[in-house]
Amino acid sequence: MGAGKSTLGRRVAARLARPFVDLDAEIERHAAASISTIFATRGEVEFRAIEEKLAREALDHPVPAVISLGGGAMVSKTTARRLREQALTVFVEVDVDEAWKRARRSRRRPLAERESEFRQLFEQRLPLYEDAADARARDANDIVLAAAGVLVEGGAYGRLGDLVPEQVEIVVDERVRGLHPPPLDAPIHAVPPGEMAKSLSICTRLWQALRLERAGTLVAVGGGSTTDVGGFVAAAYLRGISWVAVPTTLVGQVDAAVGGKTGIDLPHGKNLVGAFDWPERTVVDHELLATLSAAERRNGLAEVVKTGLLAGEELWELPEPELVRRCAAFKAAVCLRDPRDEGERAMLNLGHTFAHALEAASKYELAHGEAVALGLTAALLLSGLPDDAARVDELLAPEPARVDLDAAWAALKRDKKSRGGSVQLVLLDAPGKPRTGVELPEKDVRRALADLIA
Ligand SMILES: NC(=O)c1ccc[n+]([C@@H]2O[C@H](COP(=O)([O-])OP(=O)(O)OC[C@H]3O[C@@H](n4cnc5c(N)ncnc54)[C@H](O)[C@@H]3O)[C@@H](O)[C@H]2O)c1
Prior knowledge:
- With 454 residues, the chain is α/β, with parallel strands linked by helices.
- The protein has 3 domains: 5-140, P-loop containing nucleotide triphosphate hydrolases (Rossmann fold, 3-Layer(aba) Sandwich); 150-292, Rossmann fold, CATH 3.40.50.1970; 344-450, Dehydroquinate synthase-like - alpha domain (Dehydroquinate synthase-like, alpha domain, Up-down Bundle), CATH 1.20.1090.10.
- The chain is built from 19 helices and 14 strands.
- A hairpin with a 2-residue loop joins strand 10 and strand 11.
- It is globular and about 80 Å long.
- The mean pLDDT is 94.
- Bound molecules: nicotinamide-adenine-dinucleotide (NAD).
- Residues 173, 175-176, 179, 193-195, 198, 222-226, 228, 248-249, 251-252, 255-256, 259, 261, 270-271, 288, 291-292, 296, 299 line the site of nicotinamide-adenine-dinucleotide.
């Protein structure tokens, strides 16, 4: 009571585009009476019976929903069992003083009339909640992250052994292995640092070396390159085994390791082979970022700025642990709404159409973050948002790219996001209001591209 379940539930349902069921409201509708009246006229036992029945109906709903359970629903052993079997259960944490402050104002809560009783109930129910919880949350971001299987916690890497199943093998970026040796007693397969790992020959080597059975789990530890290749190796090995992503770069933590896209490069292009395969869990520990080079941090910052523009919030101003949590939650929600990139997930390409073109024209000499920073300014100018473009310029200070315009233009037209030859752009009506699939006259797009080139 008073944890904010209804408010958070409604917010999370909106973010995940799922129906929302407020069990207390359903009970009142079903009984055509307020909860206080049901308690007063029919007693708590009858109330609990109605609650149990409606909880079952909500859990059996054909479309998965976000359900806000009444504080006492867990007391029913049947409901507790069904939650274990059928739901992801998130414990919304609140301290008892705050809960009492909120609950005593509500007329809907017959069990929140006397403070001593309220506190006693809180103590009694706490072990039930702790036992039932698959995850704990303090706000809507935490709940979205839990739904995506993402754990964001400083120091989590140190207890990786507790967070993964027993039968695991580890794929780790060679450099990361030296800096942050995996704290697990399991077979380790080192892969070359960064993008070099995303090749078919590395996959073949890993497929031949793995000894995992179908029930085993591959744990990929490294930046986006390692989680991309590790995830893809897991997706195809024995026709698919579980995998856990442990991103160690800012790009990985705010972007690459969230959302279930895995893949490798072919000699003629990046990310041309891959699979959608959502990791069983993603373990995000911002403490791993302490060893990151300034250049890698800048690459990450470009994705943070992109996320902030899409979210309409200045996420880049937040302290690093919170910035990571908020960006990961934003991406998780978009990808849970559109896991196979068939619709609105395209918004995550903001600035990337230009960025990919510049990178390809530079033969991948240009840093990804630099290219994204340039791409974002172009997207903002084409969106008619010059002030935001100036802000990105100030935050990321990208230098114009030293590439050939014709080569960049050809790459832009070849981008896998273009359809039937016309380039599809992501623009913003305003920060927080992305528009995907925008087609502009070619001459405007080419001029915007030219403006990014030295
Ligand atoms: N799957 C997706 O949705 C998605 C999204 C964005 C990017 N990506 C992919 O991610 C890749 C880029 O990933 P990235 O930017 O995370 O970098 P990366 O994995 O390529 O690594 C970059 C460098 O950082 C080093 N490194 C990693 N962790 C470190 C640490 N903690 N301390 C010091 N050095 C460390 C690596 O050894 C490497 O040299 C690209 O291949 C891109 O296609 C995938």
